């Protein structure tokens, strides 16, 4: 049975990265014939002006806040978010709309995100890529939040995002204490509430790998600080088993990087493992002290 094509808005949230933003928008504008609206939520000191893309200038800071602004300021049935350093593949628009039409009961769709522009050799791990080798449908309370995708590229049903209260503005890029895990917190709440996620091989993009090794160490430290903070959030909010379970996956992440460093005899990966461990410890303390 054929289902009508749902309405869709694709949103790019950005702050102070005009060159990367232009590349991301150029790829999306080539896909606009598929039938979606394109919106930029811009927190830059000098927001983007002109052109045919709708720009929402947001004087605040934080990716979670920007996503909530998009949720309030758009009206489509579905909202897709694409990072400003992510380039969608040709056919992205039609593929995403086809998947949404084919799965009228789902809450979430994500696709394959590869890594591009890698400039520092094979020893530097890829950041925020997501491999989708086959189409899958995932759900369940104990599905790992990262197994359904990351904030770099996803689509969510508006009604679901509103039911969950949007994104937690105490988490995510732009928040000093917990500069990540905004996506993992949202994914966890979606899955815990009974949400269903679809992973599609047809929806594809590339996440540019532009950070230096030093920048990556800072990023990974922030990732684990935020991960353990978000785990502590749920623990302190009464989800004791869930909070401990989430925190334990942070430990697994640190151990995995340490083992990788040993097997490769990689000083760089050892530094990343140390950065992750520091972040895990810092976030655990900060998360338990925070009044969520």
| Helical/strand content category | alpha/beta
Shape-level CATH architecture of the largest domain = Alpha-Beta Complex
Count of helical regions: 8
CATH homologous superfamily annotation of the largest domain: Spore Coat Polysaccharide Biosynthesis Protein SpsA, Chain A
In a few lines, what is going on in this structure?
The protein has 8 helices and 9 strands. By secondary structure, it is an alpha/beta fold.
Structural notes for this entry:
There is one protein chain. This protein folds into two domains: 8-208, Spore Coat Polysaccharide Biosynthesis Protein SpsA, Chain A, CATH 3.90.550; 213-289. Helix 6 runs antiparallel to helix 7 (240-264). Strands 1, 2, 3, 4, 5, 6, 7, 8 and 9 form a nine-stranded mixed β-sheet that branches. By secondary structure, the chain is an alpha/beta fold. It contains eight helices and nine strands. The model has no long low-confidence stretch (mean pLDDT 95). The longest helix is centred in the last third of the chain and has 25 residues, at 240-264.
């Amino acid at each position: 049975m054929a289902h009508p094509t749902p309405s869709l808005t694709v949103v790019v949230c950005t702050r102070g990265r005009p060159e990367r933003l232009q590349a991301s928008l150029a790829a999306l504008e080539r896909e606009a014939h598929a039938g979606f609206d394109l919106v930029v939520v811009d927190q830059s000191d000098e927001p983007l002006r002109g052109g045919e893309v709708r720009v929402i200038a947001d004087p605040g800071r934080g990716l979670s806040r920007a996503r909530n602004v998009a949720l309030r300021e758009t009206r489509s049935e579905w909202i897709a978010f694409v990072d400003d350093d992510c380039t969608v593949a040709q056919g992205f628009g039609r593929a995403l709309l086809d998947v949404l039409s084919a799965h009228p009961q789902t809450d979430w769709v994500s696709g394959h995100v590869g890594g591009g522009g890698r400039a520092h050799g094979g020893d530097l791990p890829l950041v925020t890529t997501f491999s989708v080798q086959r189409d899958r449908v995932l759900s369940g309370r104990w599905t790992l939040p990262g197994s359904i995708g990351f904030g770099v590229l996803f689509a969510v049903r508006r009604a679901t995002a509103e039911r969950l209260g949007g994104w937690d503005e105490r988490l995510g890029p732009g928040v000093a204490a917990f500069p990540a895990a905004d996506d993992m917190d949202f994914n966890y709440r979606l899955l815990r509430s009974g949400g269903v996620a679809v992973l599609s091989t047809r929806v594809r993009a590339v996440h540019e790998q532009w950070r230096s090794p030093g920048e990556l160490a800072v990023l990974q430290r922030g990732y684990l600080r935020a991960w353990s903070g978000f785990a502590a959030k749920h623990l302190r909010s009464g989800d004791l088993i869930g909070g401990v379970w989430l925190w334990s996956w942070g430990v697994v992440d640190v151990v995995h990087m340490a083992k990788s460093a040993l097997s490769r005899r990689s000083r760089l990966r050892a530094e990343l493992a140390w950065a992750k461990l520091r972040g895990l410890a810092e976030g655990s303390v900060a998360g338990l002290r925070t009044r969520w």
